[in-house]
Amino acid sequence: MRDRISAALKDAMLAKDRLRTCTVRLMLAAIKDRDIALRSEDGAGGLDDAGIIALLAKMVKQREESAATYETAGRMELAETERAEIGVIKDFLPKPLSADEVEAAIRKALAETRASSIRDMGKVMGVLKAQYAGRMDFGAAGGRVKAALG
Q1: Averaged pLDDT in 10-residue chunks for the chain of 150 residues
Q2: 16, 48, 89, 96: most buried, per Cβ within 10 A?
Q3: Closest alpha carbon to 56 in 11, 23, 22
């Protein structure tokens, strides 16, 4: 994943794509910051691919919130910039699951954990997060799991 992002930075620089270059640099900086934080916490190495995907998903969510705030304030040019950055970041994220795939994943996780009540929701969500990081909206999935268990 790191190699792919680094290669994308070089390509964007060669293409003189200012937006893509700046966004990919922000991504690499965020990854490096998280690596440093992890090293100081436990002395281990940096982020793995799953950690990078989670970090990029978080960056997308932050930009979506910023774009909504800018739109509310009437700053459409800033909202458009945020949305353009979202597009660049999403290029590096795995393809999100369809609604049918999410339902199938939830059914599989319910069967795998043998969940029978709402108290088992944490187990089910843990399985989903481990297997589908960056590919599923866990807020929406949580509601579906709750409905299935409730």
Answers
A1: 94 96 96 88 75 90 96 96 96 89 92 90 90 82 88
A2: 89
A3: 23
Give the DSSP letter string of 2-35: HHHHHHHHHHHHHTT-HHHHHHHHHHHHHHHHHH
pLDDT at 44: 65
Phi, psi of 49 (to 5 degrees): -60, -40
Fold of 99-149: Arc Repressor Mutant, subunit A (1.10.10)
The torsion angles phi and psi of 75, rounded to 5 degrees, stand at -100, 70
Can you give the residue ranges of every domain in the chain?
2-90, 99-149
CATH topology of domain 2-90: Hypothetical Protein Yqey; Chain: A; domain1 (1.10.1510)
pLDDT of residue 40: 78
- List all residues 6 or more positions away from 59 whose beta carbon is below 8 Å from its beta carbon: 26, 27, 30, 89
pLDDT at 43: 63
Q: How many CB atoms lie within 10 A of CB 27?
A: 21
Q: What is the pLDDT of residue 24?
A: 97
Alpha-carbon distance of 96 to 88, in angstroms, equals 15
